Structures are given as C-alpha cells and as structure tokens.
Amino acid sequence: MKNVTDSFVSLVHWPFAGSFGFNTDILATNPINLSVVIGVLIFFGKGVLSDLLDNRKLRILNSIRNSEELQDGAVERLEKARARLRKVEIEADQFRVNGYSEIEREKLNLINSTSKTLDQLENYKNETIHFEQQRAINQVRQRVFQQALQGALGTLNSCLNKELHLRTISANIGIFGAMKEITD
Known about the structure:
This protein is mainly α. It has three helices and no strands.
C-alpha cells in the first residue's frame, strides 16, 4: 500500500510541462472536463436520446390521432343527437297541433253528448209527466166510476125489491145459458 500512496504523492511532484498529471487549477480544467463529458455524452447518448425523443414523438402523435378520432366520433354523435332533436321537435309540434285539434274534437263531442243527454232527460221528464198525468186521470176515473157504481148500486138496492131482483137474476141466467148453448 505504501507504493500506491507513494505513486500518488510522486505524481503531485511531477513537472507540469510535457508530462501527464493532475491539474489542480479548477478554472482552467472545468471547461475542458465539461467539454469532454458533453462530447462523450453526445457520442454515446445520441442514440438513446434520439430513441427517447422518437418514442415521445410517437406517443404524442398517437395521442393526437386518438384525440382526433374521439373528436370525429363526438362530432358525429353530436350531429346524430341534433338530428334526433330536430325530429323530436317536429314530432312534438305535430303532437301539439294534433293535441289541440284532438282537444277541440273532444270538446265538441262532449258538448254534443251533453246536449243529447239533456234532450233525452227532457224527453224522459216529459214522458214521466205524461205518465203521471195519465195515472192521475185513471185514478180519478176509477174513483168516479167507483162512486158512480156505488151510487148506482145504492139506487138499485133502494129501488129493487125482491121480485124485481129475482127477475133480473133469472134473465141473466137465461142469457148465460143461451151463450153456453151457442158456444157448445
């Protein structure tokens, strides 16, 4: 190990002109070292750097292409949606117009139906009134007939005596007997 440290120590003592050694002047050696390092990096790293840049460029182009395809798809869907919207608006207008005409038609139908129903009810009312009048007239007739019959029976009973009564019964039996013979 002593030989290795001696060799480094002996390098420091070498003369500067025409020989190889370490230059300890930082200002003089820095640009040279940097240019050597940059040259080596450019020489050896040029392929890697160009590959990285090419890959990045391809990814950016693919992203742009995908974005354009997505944009085209979105524009197409937007146009379809606009077409559907126009169609739906037209249908809505037709429904609105048809709805108004349907409402008017239903309104007229309802008015006509109500008018017919009112006419029928008026006819039923008139028939009911006529029926009740006929019934009242028939009841009055029956009462008048019953009263007339009772009056006639009362008059007959007061005027009839037994002999007249027997003659009337015999005459009626004779009439019924003659009717029986005719029917046989």
